[in-house]
Design goal:
Blueprint: H1 2-45, H2 48-59, H3 65-81, H4 88-106, H5 112-129, H6 134-151, H7 156-166
Helix pairs in contact: 1-2, 1-3, 2-3, 3-4, 3-5, 4-5, 5-6, 5-7, 6-7
Length: 167
């Protein structure tokens, strides 16, 4: 009888906490979707503050590779923005972390192509901020793009980055 009561107590606790856990999970998913939409809008209107806010949301979920991808995308766009006047300090704050995140994505199953493409783009931003780095980074960029296209020849971003490199 006591074991039955214990079992019923455990089941009732599990049943009452399950909806709460599901609600928290949905709330987390909603925050991530909101951050993705915010990052998309920010990259269209070129808004640094919006990108930083989206990046912060993704950082909280950086164990999730999809969130890490979007976080790294925000970092790439912020590096791109750092080449504009008045944003010089932004590059130094973000560059090293952006490289580390892109390298992690490059070796993660299913994200190889995107990670290598983002890393190539991040290296391009390094060249834009320090033209002398082109000597060492240009071969790395082309190698990364070759590897990216081997993993996923249909990834249009790798072709865009390669086209920009040729300009």
């Amino acid at each position: 009888m006591k074991s039955t009561i214990k079992l019923l107590t455990i089941l009732s606790l599990a049943i009452t906490t399950l909806p709460s856990a599901q609600t928290q999970n949905r709330t987390g998913e909603n925050k991530i979707l909101e951050a993705i939409n915010l990052a998309d809008r920010a990259s269209i209107v070129y808004d640094k503050d919006m990108l930083l806010k989206a990046k912060e949301t993704f950082e909280k979920e950086s164990d999730n590779l999809t969130c890490l991808f979007f976080q790294n995308f925000c970092e790439y766009k912020l590096l791109e923005m750092s080449t504009r006047p008045g944003n010089g300090d932004l590059f130094d704050k973000i560059y090293d972390a952006a490289v580390a995140h892109a390298e992690k994505l490059s070796s993660a199953e299913g994200f190889e192509s995107e990670g290598k493409t983002l890393l190539a783009g991040i290296y391009m931003m390094k060249i834009a901020s320090n033209p002398m780095s082109a000597v060492s980074l240009t071969p790395k960029i082309h190698s990364l793009l070759d590897e990216s296209q081997q993993h996923n020849p249909d990834n249009p971003r790798s072709y865009i980055i390669r086209g920009i490199m040729r300009l």
